[in-house]
Amino acid sequence: MKGAVETVIETIQLGVSVARIELLDEIQIEAVNRNSKTTLPVTPTLFFEFHGMSERYVTEQAEFVQSLAHERGGHSFEWATRWEDREKLWQARHAAYYASLALRPGCQGFISDVCVPISALAECILETQKDHVGLPFPATILGHVGDGNFHVIYVVDTRNEREMERAREIAERVVTRALTMGGTCTGEHGVGYGKIKYLEAEHGQALRVMCAVKQALDPDNRMNPGKIVEPRMLYS
Fold it and tell me: What is Dmax (Cα atoms) for the chain?
């Protein structure tokens, strides 16, 4: 995992023309193999999409990233240029969520995400993996790591309050860690109801300014009431 994330970091730092970079951890890859009948090596895996002005340029960029990955322990590299072949390679990423659910039929996905500076990404993911050791339910990691964003999926029995509490506890630990690393409590899923409690820690006094703007534009709190900004902050 460390080698995979370091490959991402160097790819970005060296200015390689990459349209997207996705990361699946080994548990997520195992889930994909079971669900999609694929035979991907069960190891942290990166998915790249390259773009450029010519096929030769794109090929050179792909080969360069292949060499970076090899230097950091990457042991296989498969790539395609035709649309249908590319889609086949990307299928593993597209099916990731449902593949995770299939690890434990009848259960649901408890999902969270965070985003951290690229320089902190390896440490954040590795520490999160340590949190997942010994959990009584499947836990997978996947992410849009080109911008430092990754997701955790906990496949839990929502009727089991002990499991739900454990999932919430670990998800909160992931968010707290991201904030201490200069990141944000969510990079993609949004704040909604679930992450309101982290905004003051993340934004400090700037949150008061946001509340003032919200109250000025929406004095009756009709727009998304109860989301992102707590009523107590609006009317205190």
Answer: 61
